[in-house]
Amino acid sequence: MAPKILIMGPQGAGKGTQSQRIVEAYGVKHITTGGALRANKQRDISDLDLEYDTPGAYMEAGELVPDVVVDAIVEAALDEVDGFVLDGYPRNIDQAEALDEMTDIDVVLVLEVSRETSVKRLTGRRVDPETGENYHTEFDMPDDEAVRERLVQREDDTQEAVETRLDVFEEETAPAIDHYSDHEGYTTIDGEQSPDAVWADIDAAVERKVEGS
Ligand code: ADP
Ligand code: ADP
Known about the structure:
This protein is an alpha/beta fold. It has 9 helices and 7 strands, in the order βαβαααβαβαββααβα. The strands form 2 sheets. Strands 2-3-1-4-7 form a 5-stranded parallel beta sheet, with helices on both faces. Strands 5-6 form a two-stranded antiparallel sheet. Strand 5 (125-127) and strand 6 (134-136) form a beta hairpin. The chain binds adenosine-5'-diphosphate (2 copies). Residues 11, 33-34, 37, 58-59, 62-65, 70, 88-89, 91, 95, 165 line the site of one adenosine-5'-diphosphate.
């Protein structure tokens, strides 16, 4: 059966980068709440009577989009797939508890990097708007000149917005990671290594956890 994988860690830990490899190796779907929310930035959620009327307003402020919106997106996405790598969710304890009700997870990958590494990676991150693939000005530029020329920087990858998101990570998401510390599929991975070395550790962990179950 296709594995059900959670990938967690601070912004810039390499979740998106490694999720792409997981998709290729295991034939699972990549479910990313950040991506789903960016596609629904302007959606009218005023009927919910929350602080802001669109997901995009929360995202621009570097705040979490309310659970009621995100939980529904994840539940609908999980309904449509068998195996998956879930990236960007859960981000707080309540979301972790909501996910426990939705499905059973096989592997919980926790990518660990320092705050300094996160900031360096995010401020240099560039995205190909056509494929959604991530690159980095210093560590990973595409060979194809046409791709290089169309790369853009995400609006929330400025130094200030990055610092805010990392504060939210430490306050809200670190406890959600702890929620899984006793899970049998829980594995920490040294995310400071090169992308290939991180991938080797992830691949070995997934094989071990899935075979062991
Ligand atoms: P996340 O999804 O965890 O926020 P990304 O996968 O988008 O992180 O990676 C953030 C940035 O860091 C991207 O520009 C990516 O190219 C780069 N990156 C990812 N993994 C590594 C690594 N192991 N070493 C150096 N740079 C990396
Ligand atoms: P990052 O992890 O680098 O902040 P993402 O692309 O994962 O970026 O998410 C972008 C924005 O979308 C977040 O800053 C947040 O506002 C919102 N978001 C994504 N996932 C969630 C989630 N699980 N719960 C609440 N808000 C979310």
